[in-house]
C-alpha cells in the first residue's frame, strides 16, 4: 500500500499543469475561477486548444482520439484541469454522447459525429429530463413514431443545459408505448435546426440563462440517427449516467475554490486585520479541507478499484463521490459568499459585468451550485443506490 | 498510488482477523475477558505473541518483525472490530513506540524480546490533569540526584498502566510547565518505590490508572532518549497512536454499521422489516458514507504517521483525527437511534461498540483540539 504518486505520475501532473497554465488563455481561466459567465466562444476556444493537443477526449477509444491513460492519469488530468480553472471539455459532447456513440453507434455515425464532437464543431445538449420525468427518468413521455425512413418526434424536454448554443440534441424518446417503462425507450440524435423544434430559456436562481425547455412538434428525424437498437436506449443511458457519476465529485474544482478563498481571505479586511485572522472562519475552511482530503482518497480508492472491474457497469461506491462531492462544492461556495460579506449583495448587471470584482459573482455561484445535489441523479437517488446495491436494504 | 496489500500483509490480515473472530466472536467472550483482574485475558495475550503481533512494529535486529504503520493498521482494525480488550494500543503502539523511537541499543535489547514474547508490557504515562490535550504541558519533574534521577508529580488516565511492568513516564528536566523544550522520558519499573497506581475501569470497559510519583529514584540509564528533548518523541508516538486509533475506529464502525444494517433487515414493525423504510435506509447510507470517509483518513494517517517531519505529519494526523472523531460520533449515535431501545442496553454488542467509539473521540485530542491544530498550520491546501 502506498498512497503516494509515482515519479512518472508526478511528472505527468507537471506536464498537464504547465500546459493548462501556458496554453489556455488567462482571461478564460479567470472567468471560470471567479464564476463569471462564459461565452460560447470561450468553451470552443478552450476545447479546441485541448483537442489540438489530443487532450479533449483522452478517455475515448484510441482510434477516436483517446490517450489510453490509466484511471489515475485520467484523474490527475481532470484534477489539474479544474485546479487551473480551465473550462471542462463540454460534458455533453465529451463525457455523454461521444462515449455512447463510440460504444454503441454504427461506423457511419462514429465517422460522421465523433471528430466533430471532440473538436466542438458541433455543440451537443442533453434531452433526457422532462417536466414529468426527473429522478424517475424512465417515466419520460416524448414519443418517436416510425414513419418510413424517419421518426416523428413529439414532446418536451427540460433542464436542457446550454441548449441555446446547441447544434444537436441527444434524446431519450419512447418508441414503444406498450412496453414496460424502461423497455420502450430509444436513443435518438436530433439536429436542433430541424423544423418543429423550439427553445425557451429558463432563468435559474442565479439570474442567468443556463438551462432551457426544448419543444418538439412533429419533428422529422432520419432513422439513421437512431443509436444502437430501437428500444434499447435505456441501457445506453445507464452507461452514460455511470460515466457522469465518476467525474461528478469535482474535487479539483472545490480545491481551486477553497484555495482561492484562502488567498482572498488574506486580502479581505475585517476588524483590525483580515478575514484570515478570524479563527472561526479558518476553522470552517479547515473543516472543508479535511473532508475534501478524505474524499480525494475515497476517490482514489474508487479509481484504483475501477482498473480492476468491468468499467461498463457503474460502481455503486461512486455514489459516495456524488453525495460528498456535491456537498463540498456547495460548502465551498457558502464560504465564498461569507467572505464577500455585504459586497456579495449587488447583483451583476449586464452592462457593467466586466468591471465588477469577484464579490459580485459569489452569490450567483452559490445559488447556481445548489443544482449539483439535484442533477446527475439527486443525492437521494444516490442514497437509494447505495442502500440497495451495497447495503442490501 | 496503490491500495493493495502485499502477500505478507494479506496473510497477517487473515490470521489476526481469524483469531479475533474466534476469540471474541461474541459479547460474552469479550465480557469474560474484561472480568479478569487486568481487564483482559493473559492467555489471549500469549496467543497474540504467538501470532507475532506483539513484536510487529519492532526492527528485526531488536527481536521484532519489522512491520510498519500498515501492519499496525491491519492489526488494530481487526482487533477493534471484535472489541479485543488486550492492551495492544497501550503496550505495543504507545509504550513500544517510545522505546522503538528513542531507546538506546541497550534499552531495546533489554526490553523488546520480552515484549515480543508477551512476558513484558509497557504503558505510556504522559497525560496530566491540567494539560488536557496539550502534549507540551508537563508539570511532573525529574531532577538529577547523585548519578541518577528523582521523579515527582502525577499522571492521569494512563491506559492499561496496571498491566505494565515498565512505564514510560514523561517529566520535566528543564523549563516551565508549558515549555516545549525540557521534557524527558524515563523507563520506570512498575514496582519502583514511591510510585503509586490508582487503577480504574474506563467508560468503554477498558482500564486505566492515575499515577502519583513521590521521590521515585531511578538510575542514570532510565533516561529514554535525550534529556530535555522528549517532546518530539512524544509527538511522534501520539501521532502514531492516532493513526492506530483511527484504524481501530474504522474496525469498530464497520462492526457497528454491519450490526445496524442487519438489525434493519430483521427487525419487524407494522408487519414489515424496518429496513424497507426509506427514512431509515438513508440514515444507514449516511453512516456508510461517514465510515468510508473515515477509512480514507485512517489510510492517510497511516501513510503520514511514519514521517519524521512534524510540520508535514502533524496537520495530516490531526485532520484524520477530526474526520474519524466526527464519523465515530455520527455512526455511534445513529446506530443507537436506529436500534431503538435495544441499542440502549449493555446486554447488546452495539452499545459496547458505541462506548468504544465515544472513548476514541476523547483519546489523544478531541475534535476542536485537532481542528485547531489543522487550522493553526494554515490548513491542508495552499492558497491560490
Automatic annotation (TrEMBL), chain A:
Q: Which residues form the Acyl-CoA oxidase/dehydrogenase middle domain?
A: 125-219
Gene Ontology CC: plasma membrane
Q: Which cofactors does it use? A: FAD
Q: Which residues form the Acyl-CoA dehydrogenase/oxidase C-terminal domain?
A: 231-391
**Which residues does the UniProt record annotate as the domain Acyl-CoA dehydrogenase/oxidase N-terminal?**
6-119
Q: Which GO terms describe its molecular function?
A: flavin adenine dinucleotide binding; oxidoreductase activity, acting on the CH-CH group of donors
Is Nucleus found in the keyword set?
no
- Superkingdom to which the source organism belongs: Bacteria
Q: Which UniProt keywords apply?
A: FAD, Flavoprotein, Oxidoreductase
Q: Which InterPro entries match?
A: Acyl-CoA_Oxase/DH_mid-dom, Acyl-CoA_Oxase/DH_mid-dom_sf, AcylCo_DH-like_C, AcylCo_DH/oxidase_C, AcylCoA_DH/ox_N, AcylCoA_DH/ox_N_sf, AcylCoA_DH/oxidase_NM_dom_sf, Mycobact_Acyl-CoA_DH
Q: Name one Pfam family in it.
A: Acyl-CoA_dh_1
Please state which protein family the record places this protein in.
Answer: Belongs to the acyl-CoA dehydrogenase family.
Write down what this protein is called: Acyl-CoA dehydrogenase FadE17
From TrEMBL, chain B:
Q: Where is the Acyl-CoA dehydrogenase/oxidase N-terminal domain?
A: 6-118
Please list the residue ranges annotated as the Acyl-CoA dehydrogenase/oxidase C-terminal domain.
229-374
Q: Which cofactor does it need?
A: FAD
Give the Pfam families listed for this entry. Answer: Acyl-CoA_dh_1 (PF00441), Acyl-CoA_dh_M (PF02770), Acyl-CoA_dh_N (PF02771)
- Where does the source fall among the domains of life? Bacteria
| Keyword field | FAD, Flavoprotein, Oxidoreductase
Residues forming the Acyl-CoA oxidase/dehydrogenase middle domain are 123-210
Say if the entry is tagged with keyword Transport. no
Q: Which GO terms describe its molecular function?
A: acyl-CoA dehydrogenase activity; flavin adenine dinucleotide binding
Would you identify the family this protein belongs to, as annotated? Belongs to the acyl-CoA dehydrogenase family.
Q: What is this protein called?
A: Acryloyl-CoA reductase (NADH)
What species is this protein from? Methylobacterium hispanicum
